[in-house]
Specification:
The complex is a heterodimer of chains A (458) and B (105). Chain A is built from 23 helices and eight strands. By secondary structure, chain A is an alpha/beta fold. Chain A folds into three domains: 140 residues, Fumarate Reductase Iron-sulfur Protein, Chain B, domain 2 (Orthogonal Bundle), CATH 1.10.1060; 162 residues, no CATH class; 126 residues, Rossmann fold. Chain A has a four-stranded parallel beta sheet. Chain A has a four-stranded parallel beta sheet with strand order 6-5-7-8, with helices on both faces. In chain A, strand 7, helix 22 and strand 8 form a beta-alpha-beta unit. Helix content of chain B is 49%, strand content 10%. Chain B has five helices and two strands. By secondary structure, chain B is mainly α. Chain B has a single domain, classed as DsrC protein, C-terminal domain (Arc Repressor Mutant, subunit A, Orthogonal Bundle), CATH 1.10.10.370. Chain B has a two-stranded antiparallel ribbon with strand order 1-2. Classes of the chains: A alpha/beta (458), B mainly alpha (105). Chains A and B meet through helix 11, helix 12, helix 13 and helix 22 of A and helix 3 of B.
């Protein structure tokens, strides 16, 4: 693949169509995005962020990509935002239309489109920059809006669209797991729990009217099954009426990759989630260990589905585990997890979702030696798996992930001296699996639910 | 998509080198795919993993859980990485002629 921006390529030629004329369509999509009635998600922070930037550079000093790349200008958060901002000024502001040279407005070309399409996939939208900006500019929102514009002209990574949202709608999950395979998986996991713990835990499937519907990231069954097993043990120990669901009752994958790049795709998936929950008649929709699914079902849903159309509560599995430990509904013994454990804040759960204390209370209750990473919470460094990066590896992208975000994260983990990194998000798990291999770190990662299950006293 | 010659037959592969039509897979194709992964010789241990993946895929229409793969073949995840350096999904599934795993795996 030819070079269009830097040494990497997230978008294949087939997707990017680098020689096709796309400028006109892009400008039409952008015009629409600037109208409030046509942009129901983040119109206000988007337009404010395009209008106002003092170019102070505070954002760059906290950006993992910029810092780890040796402060390369092309990875500066403002350089990325300015790619869109220059177009905004040139075509959608009066001074820019009349005196482009005075206001930093620039004509859009096909080459510039190619470069921007790639650069918006060098940022995981971790929004650490937004947290420190003195005038509340959100470069993350700009990157996401730019991804939406590209999606509107049908340019989006295959991993999150063709093999992501579209596959999820077709099969009920983005992994393409058929119902028959799903039943086989769950039965196997019941056997595994029995073999490792000495007791059998029933994992109900498609149970209509259950109080709790626990929906995992479908990838967890395939790649991080210990999280699924741990969560089942916790639900069982709490003695609640719960169920998983199979593709036979609708969508059975909590992911919604639309969060990363498209309101249109987001809307299709969230509607399918709501329909599934209503069909099963459950009371609480429990989001498994997945960062962006929490954003979708806890927050973005509020802007799209009216309250009367979602007759259920939404909770993260972490909220339930934290509540149940504090209430004494489940009993845990921290000495059952004796190794030093540290916690990596998922950007979507933490900076976006405000869920900092729940995982920490859980881990302190379940592990004998809990250690913080530095920095953490609001200033946590994204692992580099965010916004779908964990599953993107075309065009040498694995190398980009390891040598920017991954490098900083590996150093941070080493400094804790922990032997277990607790994670609450599948993208983080995918990225940590690679970081641990790549940097040969003497640690393993574990889902929060896995550590809770280890600590259970029955 | 591109048409490539693997093990003496023309097969369509995607950008990541996964064959598109699982029915065209045979031992010679597996050996040729192994070469693309930098694996010179497929040992009986490789075949144990490949055959299990293939058998599970033909029965269930998807790759097995990694945990199940380890259990059924008796290999630890580390041993699977030693056999297939790109890992169970990207390395072993490719050689076994399965489609590229999708979703957060």
């Amino acid at each position: 693949m030819r070079k269009v921006f830097d040494d990497y390529r997230v978008l294949s030629d087939e997707t990017l169509r680098p020689d096709e004329p796309r400028v006109e369509k892009f400008l039409q999509a952008m015009k629409k995005s600037l109208q409030q009635k046509d942009n129901w998600t983040f119109w206000l922070p988007y337009t404010l962020s395009l209008d106002t930037c003092m170019k102070c550079g505070t954002c760059a000093e906290v950006c993992p990509v910029y810092i780890a790349s040796g402060r390369k200008e092309i990875y500066h958060p403002v350089y990325r935002s300015d790619m869109l901002r220059k177009i905004y000024k040139r075509y959608f502001t009066l001074p820019g239309r009349l005196f482009p040279w005075l206001v930093g407005a620039e004509d859009l070309t096909e080459d510039k489109l190619n470069a921007m399409a790639e650069n918006i996939y060098r940022c995981t939208i971790c929004r650490r920059c937004a947290y420190v900006c003195p005038v509340a500019i959100d470069n993350g929102v700009i990157a996401r809006e730019a991804r939406k514009l590209f999606d509107a002209i049908d340019i989006a990574p295959d991993e999150i669209k063709k093999n992501g949202t579209q596959k999820q709608i077709q099969f009920g999950n983005a992994t393409g797991t058929p119902a028959k395979a799903f039943f086989d998986m769950v039965e196997f996991l019941e056997d595994e729990i029995e073999e490792t713990r000495g007791y059998r835990v029933k994992m109900p499937i498609d149970k209509a009217g259950a109080e709790y519907l626990l929906m995992h990231n479908a990838g967890d069954y395939l790649a991080f099954a210990e999280t699924v097993m741990g969560a089942a043990e916790v639900m069982n120990a709490a003695g609640v009426d719960w169920t998983l669901n199979s593709p036979e009752t609708g969508v059975n994958d909590v992911v919604n990759y639309g969060v990363f790049f498209s309101d249109v795709e987001f809307a299709k998936i969230i509607k399918a989630h709501v329909e599934t929950a209503k069909k099963l008649g459950i009371k609480v929709f429990v989001v498994g260990e997945c960062g962006h699914a929490f954003e979708a079902l806890k927050y973005l849903i509020l802007r799209f589905i009216p309250p009367e159309d979602r007759p259920f509560e939404v909770k993260s599995i972490l909220e339930l585990e934290d509540e149940w430990i504090r209430e004494g509904r489940i009993k845990v013994d921290p000495t059952k997890n004796p190794e030093p454990v540290t916690y990596h804040d998922s950007c979507k759960l933490g900076r976006l979702g405000g869920m900092y204390e729940e995982p920490r209370r859980i881990l302190k209750a379940c592990c004998a030696d809990f250690r913080e990473m530095t920095p953490n919470r609001e200033m946590s460094i994204c692992c580099g798996g965010g916004s779908g990066f964990a599953i993107m590896e075309k065009g040498d992208f694995y190398k980009f992930r390891m040598e920017t975000y991954g490098k900083l994260k590996a150093e941070q983990v080493k400094a804790t001296g922990a032997s277990v990194v607790a994670l609450a998000c599948s993208n983080c798990k995918g990225q940590f699996r690679e970081i641990i291999n790549h940097y040969k770190l003497p640690v393993r990662f574990a889902g929060i639910s896995e550590l809770v299950a280890n600590a259970l006293v029955r | 998509m591109a048409l490539v010659n693997l093990g003496g037959i023309e097969i369509e592969v995607d950008e990541d080198g996964f064959i598109q039509d699982p029915d065209k897979w045979n031992e010679a194709v597996a050996k040729a795919l192994a070469q693309t992964e930098g694996i010179e010789d497929l040992t009986p241990d490789h075949w144990k993993v490949i055959n299990y993946l293939r058998q599970y895929y033909l029965e269930f229409g998807i790759a097995p859980m990694i945990r199940k793969l380890c259990k059924e073949t008796g290999f630890s995840l580390k041993q699977i990485y030693d056999l297939f350096p790109s890992g169970p999904a990207k390395g072993a599934c490719k050689i076994a002629g399965l489609p590229k795993p999708t979703g957060c795996v």
